[in-house]
Amino acid sequence: MTGNLFRAPQASAPGSPVPFDPLTAVAGVAATALLAAVAVAAGALTRPAGVVAAAFGSAILLLAGWPFLALLVLFVFGSVLATRYGFELKQAARLQEGTHGERGVSNVLAHITIPTALALGAWGWPAVLPAGGLEVLFAAALAFGASDTFASEFGVLSGRARSLVSGAAVAAGTNGGVSALGELWAVAGAASTALLGLLLYWAAGGPLVAPVDLFAIAAASGFAGCQIDSVLGATLENRGYLTKGGTNFLSMLATVGVAAVLLYAVGGPL
């Protein structure tokens, strides 16, 4: 019964006896669309990005269940707060996100594609990605997103940075540049997201893995992914081989890989 609490009403899937409830599904999708519309109205997302967020968010809700969508929503909310903090200073230094702090389609896709793919994988192939594995990998992916966003949005305000690759001093906001303040916020972003994931899974009757393992793996992987992002930024992105969205996507993919290895190492469900 525990596993059932994590699944939104949906069409039958391999290994899932949950019946499809059209009214609940429609209500869930409508609520997701409303949240995306609020984000657009608040200037957090562009209109096209809002459409993408609503579509992918609805898929996550229907495939995985409300705890996973809720964690995604909280990640977005935290990212908006981080982006708006000290915005005038960021804007004066031309280091702000977008024109007025809004995030576009490429940014949304870079952060939502992999979580949605994980939800789809667990729904369609539960023998390959059990529900407990989804809990950990999904939380780890968003822990990376929060770690990277917090490190960038708060770290840039330190006014100083060093390249994670060469150690040389670089201007604040330079791809691959890190600061003590940014690294502290990177830890905070990863750890807080892992904790929120744990609490949401608990509220739905889980988690399906040891809580300590879930928290430690998601937080550690999220922070590690943030460092990978800095390395890719300092090397491939600065040389024009990757866009910012591409760097974020590959770093999140690496984060999930790190989390999978750690989960396997502790005998987790993979």
Characterize the main sheet. 3 strands, antiparallel
Count up the domains: 1
Helix content: 55-70%
Beta strand count: 3
Order of helices and strands: HHHHHHEEEHHH
User: Structural class of the secondary structure composition?
Assistant: mainly alpha
What count of helical segments does DSSP give?
Answer: 9
Shape: globular
The fraction of residues in strands falls at under 5%
Biggest sheet strand order reads 2-1-3
Question: Measured on Cα atoms, how large is the radius of gyration?
Answer: 18 Å
Mean pLDDT: 89
Distance between the amino and carboxyl termini: 20 Å
- Spans where pLDDT lies below 50 across 5 or more residues: 1-18
Structure description:
This protein has 270 residues and is mostly helical. Strand 1 and strand 2 form a beta hairpin. Helix 2 runs antiparallel to helix 3 (66-84), helix 3 runs antiparallel to helix 7 (180-203) and helix 7 (180-203) packs across helix 8. The chain contains 9 helices and 3 strands, in the order H-H-H-H-H-H-E-E-E-H-H-H. The protein has one domain (3-265).
Quick rundown:
With 270 residues, the protein is an all-alpha fold. It is 67% helix and 3% strand.
Q: Which tags fit this structure?
A:
270 residues, mainly alpha, disordered N terminus, 3-stranded antiparallel beta sheet, globular
